[in-house]
Design goal:
about 300 residues; alpha+beta; eight-stranded mixed beta sheet; 5 helices; about 35% strand
């Protein structure tokens, strides 16, 4: 099991206005602001990280907020839904909270025997709050408004919408060790038996549907947990052996990354657990400073001037 993928490391999405995104996920949703940094390829754009107290893999939702980006379109060849785990009995609380924030949502429904609530964030990103069959014991980040009885635990699942699920399913099963656990109509749930949380991938087959467009309100990529560099290289070689092009390892400061497109067209990442978010800020100060990649430190004054203020 040393080389077994336990589940998701993080999910990265695209937003519009940075302050609106920051306010929604820290205030309305009650996530911890784990890291404020910038896009490695566009240093005048923020890169936000939200999660639990320390930014534990499996809780990390990240955003690139581009102020004037066009709105994306959900469709095939993309990741389309983010699923969070929430405690039993909390959905009434979340309905009232979303109502108060004027957020569009659907009434609770059931999927694979679990009750869930779907809503769209301010940019149109589709998010689901799921009460899992098995109690999620992860310690949540609490705020003055959101206690542990209601707080988000971390990821439950992510959904990919595809024209044909078979090539992607084969990758998940044959290369990543996932197993098909449940199926209803055109939705197929795959589970990593090596993990207890953030370990579901749902594949929705939508033959003939329009291809999606990744932009504002869209998921940019999903990342799987690699416990160390050796495990990451092991899976990079497995991906290359399947005829898929994987990048060399890239240093993202808080983890090291390898990227590739799975057969259905979704951008996948292999991300190491180390070194983590305390490499440049202590736990009690996470998210309180603008942390720049070393190559951009000489431009700090210019970058700070161009970034939108969050307070």
């Amino acid at each position: 099991m040393d080389q077994a993928i336990t589940g998701l490391h993080h999910i990265t999405a695209i937003a519009g206005n940075a302050k609106k995104n920051f306010d929604f996920y820290t205030k309305t949703m009650g996530l911890r602001f784990v890291k404020k940094t910038v896009n490695f390829d566009d240093p005048h754009t923020y890169h936000f990280y939200y999660g639990d107290k320390t930014g534990t893999p499996g809780t990390i939702l990240t955003f690139f907020p581009w102020q004037d980006i066009m709105t994306g379109r959900r469709g095939t060849h993309m990741a389309t839904e983010i699923g969070y785990s929430v405690p039993e009995g909390s959905l009434d609380f979340w309905q009232k909270r979303l109502d108060a924030a004027n957020i569009i949502y659907n009434k609770p429904s059931a999927k694979f025997g679990e009750i869930y609530l779907t809503f769209l964030d301010p940019d149109g990103l589709k998010v689901e709050l799921t009460v899992p069959e098995k109690t999620d014991d992860r310690e949540p980040w609490e705020t003055t408004d959101i206690s542990a009885d209601n707080a988000l635990r971390g990821f439950h699942h992510v959904t990919l919408t595809l024209d044909d699920i078979q090539p992607t399913a084969d990758l998940l099963v044959s290369a990543f060790g996932y197993q098909l656990e449940k199926n209803h109509a055109n939705r197929y749930r795959f589970k990593s038996p090596a993990g207890d949380t953030a370990n579901y991938i749902d594949l929705v087959e939508a033959k003939g549907e329009q291809r999606g467009h990744v932009a504002g309100g869209s998921i940019h990529h999903i990342a799987f947990r690699m416990k160390d560099d050796a495990m990451q290289e092991h899976f990079r070689e497995k991906i290359e052996a399947r005829g898929l092009h994987a990048t060399q390892q890239l240093d993202r400061k808080y983890f090291r990354s390898v990227y590739f497109r799975e057969p259905g067209g979704v951008l996948f990442e292999l991300a190491t657990d180390t070194p983590g978010f305390t490499v440049d800020e202590p736990v009690d100060q996470l998210g309180t400073h603008l942390m720049l990649p070393p190559q951009y430190e000489p431009q700090r004054a210019e970058i700070e001037q161009k970034l939108i203020k969050l307070d």
